[in-house]
Design brief:
The complex is a heterotrimer of chains A (about 120), B (about 500) and C (about 500). Chain A is mostly helical and about 120 residues long. Helices cover about 70% and strands about 0% of the residues of chain A. Chain A contains five helices and no strands. In chain A, helix 2 runs antiparallel to helix 3 and helix 3 runs antiparallel to helix 4. The relative contact order of chain A is 0.13. Chain B has about 500 residues and is an all-alpha fold. Helix content of chain B is about 75%, strand content about 0%. Chain B has a two-stranded antiparallel ribbon. Chain C is an all-alpha fold and about 500 residues long. Chain C has a two-stranded antiparallel sheet with strand order 1-2. In chain C, helix 4 runs parallel beside helix 14, helix 6 packs antiparallel against helix 7 and helix 7 runs antiparallel to helix 8. Chain C starts with a helix and ends in a 7-residue tail after the last helix. The chains are: A mainly alpha (about 120), B mainly alpha (about 500), C mainly alpha (about 500). Chains in contact: A-B, B-C.
């Protein structure tokens, strides 16, 4: 595989790197908010993957125009899917943050090791 | 179209649409009644569906009339029917019994929201089971997970919050892994419909992305299913959740993820990837064996009754996986039957624990002394369900142990090793169940005994009913066995 | 009543009885005891009513549920099971009489639970006796273990709970770890587990595996107490004496040896097993158990523990007799089940009566007790003589048959074992008899007379049965000979 081919997979490399960064943050950070930030980064990587794969070279938005015949469209389905996934991601984040608020009310801290010590 | 044809959709819609309505039912008790009614209706639907597919047929429902592979379809076959029975049965039974315990644990102003989240969790789990579309499964998985996080954290125990946070992180990682796998497959096949996927994967020339997808999906679902060693979120989440929520989730939540794992693996990957069945067995069987042995050993030394039973759940997941990893009809029959029987046994055990928890604040074993004298019916039900978990003949648990051992015996030269694992696991179950029994029956009372009496009748009746079902299905297991058998045939057929 | 119904009634009746006992227990102890009496009397009527059918060669059979193809819950009456059921139901009545005297004399707590669990245990025993296939046998076997656990743990103090843990631990784990795989193995290779005359395994299993399967069965059936699976029996002696008497001298332990005999006769088939050299070890193991258990019994100072080790030895008599694999010895095995039951229940009754009257539990405390409790000690003497095998007691008859079988098979090890153990039995029973009758009591002992009337009545009855069996054993031998009819 030559350099050009490698670069051709640029988006997928970025996907892998972002995914790893997110996972790293989730595992390594003890602050619960930072963990959630990591989780968001982790999920964003997947969004990027879906958006990348629907790209068709020379394709445009899939809107049928009168008079235009041999139009190439980008695949709309992954975009729809990922809209749903973004909604799911946002809900998860919201719920996670709500949990953090409750935890901070009950424990007076959002550091994981301090919470473990408290019980 | 007659009503039967619409049932797969109604199965999801009834609890899902009831959920927002429940929020409006403010007066005391009404929210509970509404949620229970919805759960009972969906249980009735599941029963009807199970009887309809008993002969091995598959009901397919095209949402909005769009046929597959363009539209989203729901499908119910015998494997999904058995899961539907488990999920809706657990939902109906736990909600039916829930009221006294929930009244005690959750403030009445929050109850409508709580019951609403509970119904959403139920509809999400049901949705996963009936979905024939990989992305829909993801959406339903997240609906059920988000709702489960809420109901687990809804109780008065503050330790539930960090437990839920851990569950949320691990659950989301699992779901995202699943999503990555589905994306890769979609990239290679251009479809999300499971049946269509199987058909088109055969034409894919570059198999590497599919292998990666198989890895992501298996790991992601194993996380959700609490397969050893990805189970770390289970003990705390089950222990600190409101007691009735533990009943519901322990009986069905991880099993549904396991169901998707089995379905994906047999219907999609084994049919298309060369030697995948063997690779799957080699990967899963050691995890199953380790899960059975290590989780049972942990349970043997656990001092908190709910945590002990949670560890035992992880071991039981191991039994199901062991049957699955045999890649044979007897093995899959055993697994499908064990899904059902374990839900009965573990549901009954946690129901009895909920009864105990109604009277005892501290659920550590050394605090439960004298319970049998004060709560004889609860303890009797606990013993029956415990025997079922061990696999004593005459109880439901025995049936699946028998099937599993027979399947291992037919599986080849290493069959005796597997039998040894199953039997050692059962002996460990004897030890941990008996530790609880001795505590309940023979330990000197610690708490102020005079105040303690039998649990409320509503809770007790359901617990007793589940205990009786454990015996009934031990003596007359024909219907679940028939479903399990035809599910196994379906999966093996799908794998070829 | 038609025989098929009678089988189900025999199993359900004690269950109903248990329920009645619980309900009657709320009204008063006399009504509760009446419930026990009525249940056991009707059980005798039902079970013994099956005898004529059996004598005529009938084999009534009934199927309850088919769990999966080939795996059924079914009951069949055949001579071995008939004998066991008749024995257990008959002795239950006598034991109930004794229990009332003992439990009241001892002012035990939780008597309702005691009598209810006893009835449950009898239901399981009937199930074992009439089991038509291996699975049903296993089902009832486990039920018997579980229903007797509360009886063993009756006292509820920490020491008792520890012993009860050994009891349930050994019995449950051997049955799950060894008995269950043996059953599943049998079902897998034979396709069925029905008890069939001549066995079902012939030609389906080869030599080394025959020995292995037999081992799984024999050690899996922990109730038979073949060493090294015998530890639970001495541990079970913490139970009140009526439990030791009926369950750990008759129902539970006999269920073990009965199951082994039945498996040898109806699953393996004695001719098939005789031809397999790898089955020989069973005989050696049983002989070893007989000798070693007798030696341990010699060293026991506690009466009940001594009786327990004597039971272990006597149980292996039955196993050894079955393992001789000759028709005469099989008949001897079934006869010895009966003979030992009569003798050992008498001995336990006597030990319990001594405890109720004087709180004595040790052998050395028995000096001169024959003068204070002549009836009890007379019965004890008869029981002990039966254990040794002296005529005119029951033990002589069964030993005769076993010896005859051993000579028929030219099995010198069996012959030698029987002779050696007879000497050992005499060595531990005769000193007790001498002490009780001819030595003087220690000064300053507690003044006491005989035990409560009901207890003494019961033990005299069983002592009489021990003697009567010597004279009137014709019908039993005739019945049991049906098992081996047509075999040489």
């Amino acid at each position: 595989m030559n350099l050009l081919e490698l670069l051709g997979y640029f988006n997928y490399w970025v996907f892998a790197i972002i995914l790893t960064i997110g996972l790293y943050a989730i595992i390594i950070k003890t602050n619960l908010i930072k963990k959630l930030i990591g989780l968001s980064i982790f999920q964003s990587a997947v969004f990027l993957m879906y958006i990348t794969m629907d790209k068709v070279e020379g394709g445009t938005a899939p809107i049928i125009q009168a008079g235009v015949e041999d139009q190439i469209f980008s695949n709309p389905l992954p975009q729809v899917l990922i809209l749903t996934a973004i909604v799911v991601g946002v809900s998860t984040l919201a719920l996670g943050l709500a949990m953090v608020v409750r935890i901070s009310e009950c424990y007076d801290t959002i550091e994981e090791n301090e919470i473990l010590d408290a019980d | 179209m007659d009503l039967l044809a619409h049932l797969p959709a109604l199965q999801v819609l009834v609890p899902m649409l009831s959920a927002p309505l429940i929020v409006l039912l403010q007066p005391r008790g009404l929210a509970w009644a509404g949620a229970t009614a919805a759960a009972l209706v969906s249980f009735a639907i599941a029963l009807t569906l199970a009887l309809a597919v008993l002969d091995g047929q598959t009901l397919v429902y095209a949402m909005g009339g769009w046929p597959a592979p363009f539209g989203i379809t729901l499908s119910v076959d015998s494997f999904s029917a058995i899961m539907l029975l488990i999920v809706t049965g657990a939902g109906a039974a736990s909600l039916l019994a829930a009221r006294p315990s929930i009244d005690q644990q959750i403030g009445s102003e929050r109850q409508p929201l709580f019951y609403s989240a509970w119904l959403l969790a139920l509809s999400g789990l049901v949705g996963i089971v009936v979905s024939a579309d990989a992305f829909n499964i993801f959406v339903f998985m997240e609906i059920s997970s988000l709702a489960s996080y809420i109901i687990i954290a809804g109780g008065p125990d503050r330790r539930a919050l960090p437990a839920v946070f851990k569950y949320l992180i691990m659950g989301t990682i699992g779901a995202t892994f699943y999503l990555i796998g589905v994306g890769l497959i979609y990239m290679m096949t251009g479809t999300l419909n499971l049946a269509d996927m199987e058909a088109r994967l055969g034409d894919v020339t570059d198999i590497n992305p599919v292998l990666v997808a198989a890895g992501f999906i298996t790991i992601g679902l194993a996380l959700k299913a609490a397969v050893f060693p990805l189970h770390v979120w289970v003990p705390n989440a089950y222990t600190h959740a409101p007691h009735m929520v533990t009943v519901f989730l322990a009986a069905c939540a991880t099993k549904v993820a396991l169901y998707v794992l089995i379905r994906f693996d047999y219907m999609v990957f084994q049919a298309t990837l060369v030697d995948h069945g063997l690779q799957f067995a080699v990967f899963v069987m050691p995890l199953a064996i380790l899960g059975i042995l290590i989780a049972s050993a942990v349970a043997m030394f656990e001092g908190h009754i709910k945590r002990l039973l949670a560890s035992s759940s992880i071991a039981q997941i191991g039994y199901v996986l062991l049957g699955v990893s045999l890649v044979s009809i007897p093995g899959l029959t055993a697994s499908a039957a064990h899904l059902f029987n374990h839900a009965l046994a573990k549901g009954g055990l946690f129901l009895a624990v909920a009864c105990l928890a109604y009277q005892y604040r501290d659920l550590r074993l050394d605090q439960l002394g004298g319970a049998a004298a004060r709560m004889p019916w609860t303890c009797a039900a606990f013993v029956i369900c415990g025997l079922s978990l061990i696999g004593v003949p005459g109880t439901a648990g025995f049936i699946s142990k028998w099937l599993l051992i027979s399947a291992a015996l037919e599986s080849g030269p290493w069959g005796w090793g597997l039998i040894a694992v199953i039997l050692i696991g059962s002996l460990m179950a004897v030890v941990y169940i008996w530790r609880i029994v001795e505590a309940l029956y023979f330990l000197a009372p610690v708490a102020d005994e005079a105040k303690i009496s039998e649990a409320p009748i509503q809770l007790l009746l359901v617990t007793g009913l589940v205990a009786i079902l454990n015996i009934y299905f031990g003596l007359f297991p024909q219907i679940p066995l028939e479903l399990a058998n035809s599910a196994a045939a379906l999966l093996i057929e799908g794998a070829q | 009543m038609i025989p098929e119904t009678a089988i189900l009634v025999a199993i359900v009746l004690p269950l109903v009885g248990a329920l009645a006992i619980v309900l009657a227990g709320r009204i008063g102890p006399n009504i509760r005891e009446a419930a026990t009496a009525i249940t056991s009397l009707s059980l005798i009527w039902v079970v013994w009513g099956l005898l004529p059918t059996l004598m005529d060669g009938g084999r009534p059979s009934v199927e309850v549920s088919e769990l999966m193809p080939g795996l059924t819950i079914a009951f069949t009456v055949e001579p071995l099971g008939m004998l066991f059921a008749a024995l257990a139901s008959g002795l239950w009545l006598i034991n109930s009489i004794y229990s009332v005297g003992y439990m009241r004399g001892n002012k035990e707590k939780n008597q309702t639970r005691f009598f209810a669990c006893f009835a449950l245990a009898l239901s399981a025993t009937m199930g074992i006796a009439f089991a038509g296939n291996l699975f049903t046998l296993f089902l009832c076997y486990e039920l018997l273990t579980l229903s007797t656990y509360p009886l063993v743990a009756h006292k509820g103090d920490p020491a008792t709970v520890r012993s009860a843990r050994i009891y349930i631990g050994v019995l449950l784990s051997t049955s799950i770890a060894l008995f269950l795989p043996a059953i599943i193995w049998t079902y897998t290779i034979a396709g069925t587990g029905d008890f069939t005359t001549g066995g079902i395994l012939a030609g389906k299993l080869n030599d080394p595996e025959i020995g292995l399967l037999l081992g799984l069965f024999v050690f899996g059936i922990g109730k038979a107490a073949v060493m090294p699976m015998h530890k639970w029996l001495p541990a079970a002696m913490v139970a009140p004496t009526p439990v030791s008497a009926l369950l750990h001298a008759v129902a539970v332990v006999k269920a073990g040896v009965f199951a082994i005999t039945k498996i040898i006769v109806y699953i393996f088939g004695i001719e098939f097993l005789f031809a397999a050299p790898s089955s020989q070890w069973l005989l050696y193991m049983a002989a070893f158990t007989i000798i070693v258990a007798s030696l341990i019994a010699l060293r026991q100072t506690n009466i009940k523990r001594l009786l327990a080790y004597s039971t272990i030895a006597q149980l292996s008599y039955v196993v050894m007799a079955a393992a001789i694999l000759k028709p005469l010895a099989e008949v001897g095995a079934s006869l010895h089940m009966v003979a030992h039951a009569f003798g050992k229940i008498t001995l336990f009754f006597a030990a319990g009566a001594i405890y109720v009257a004087s709180k004595k539990t040790e052998v050395h405390q028995l000096r001169g007790i024959g003068r204070r409790m002549p009836w009890t000690m007379a019965a004890f003497t008869i029981g002990a003589l039966s254990m040794i095998g002296v005529p005119p007691t029951a033990g002589f008859v069964s030993k005769w048959f076993i010896l005859a079988g051993a000579f028929e098979a030219n099995n010198l090890i069996a012959v030698f074992t029987i002779i050696a153990s007879t000497v050992l039995n005499a060595a531990y029973f005769l000193p007790i008899l001498y002490m009780a009758w001819f030595e003087r009591e220690h000064e300053g002992g507690k003044e006491h007379g005989e035990a409560p009337f009901l207890a003494v009545l019961a033990l005299c009855l069983t002592a009489l049965l021990t003697l009567a069996f010597f004279l009137f054993n014709g019908p039993i031998i005739e019945l049991e000979s049906q098992v081996v009819k047509g075999l040489s």
